[in-house]
């Protein structure tokens, strides 16, 4: 049986095939916890393989914790065998549609599943060749780059490059005003630790990126929402809320808003900053979609000069979600405090990833890739928008750039019901109330156009909407 399975797994090393087959037998419970495995010599003879191949396979499984080595006795199946069966588990349809719902479903989805609701590009849309060149360059780096801690501020050459990129958007910041983080999410987490006490009030857009809700709840903040319009937050409501609630922070996207795709107008930006100054409000400007823009939109940090605004960014959306690297841009005294906090929570910086990101961004191919990507997204935006309209799903606005369409479903249709029904067909959608603090987006849904081009998405949506109407 093992030999037969190995023959079916061509293209992998023999040790990998032996290990994979044993994993499958553990997951299928034909090898139960505590069961003794064949001896190295015995399995090698049965499979007609060398003993070194079987030793390699067993060592891999021991390292994974799948089996245990007992000196003088042999190899046994570990008691913690259950995790190997998780990959076979179906989607959990009974989960609440909360701020974690879309993330859980998207991250747990299999390779064959479709993910119109996720927040990232398909791997084939990312600069894979550039990443490979960067990895090859990094493989030739000196020992310090490969093995040593990075400085708490982060790789200086990358901070210099980020400083130059910021100036293209009107934000003047020296490299010493930039601190690298593991991701945009870690950057916001550090800022919340630095600026908030439990019970402090934080202002968010309604709708906004759902993980803002989750992160702020983890910091025990009081969250208050302000309706978002096609030109930014509703300024009249914003003024009333900051006067009544006196929030400590306001967290927003300014360039390409998530989930709506809207762009902040200069007039709204000036009014928001005037209110922030009047009521001693700090603004965190999340700008992780900056490179998707065709023409730079107004930046709060540029108007403010980094007095009340903290600017953050990330390369996860345009380079790779596997190579996590983000950054914080703030006034010097705040960078000093954030650096101490970073040392306390994660010690040194992630030098290896920073070196890789620097290599890729320094390659002239990245700018060419982004030009191609922007045009590709524009075409996808037009195609997906038209096909959704044919189903009676109307975009809230036509975004100037980016990957998101914020859409209104036909009257009387609950987006959460549609999302649960689609999940049964292995399609992950993003229902509106996951983004809405007030739960006022019941019939809205966010679509990632790069992940919504497969015809099956529209077929399944059409069938579900027909059933929901009947």
Tell me what you see in this structure:
The structure is a single chain. The chain is α/β, with parallel strands linked by helices and 470 residues long. The chain has helices at residues 2-7, 14-27, 40-47, 51-64, 101-108, 128-139, 143-147, 156-167, 184-195, 210-218, 235-245, 266-278, 300-304, 332-346, 351-362, 365-390, 415-423, 455-469; strands spanning 67-70, 74-77, 178-181, 201-206, 222-229, 232-233, 249-253, 282-286, 309-314, 326-329, 394-395, 404-408, 430-431, 444-448. It has an eight-stranded mixed beta sheet, with helices on both faces. Helix 2 (14-27) crosses helix 4 (51-64), helix 3 (40-47) packs across helix 4 (51-64) and helix 11 (235-245) packs parallel to helix 12 (266-278). It is globular. Residues 4-11 and 81-94 have low confidence and may be disordered.
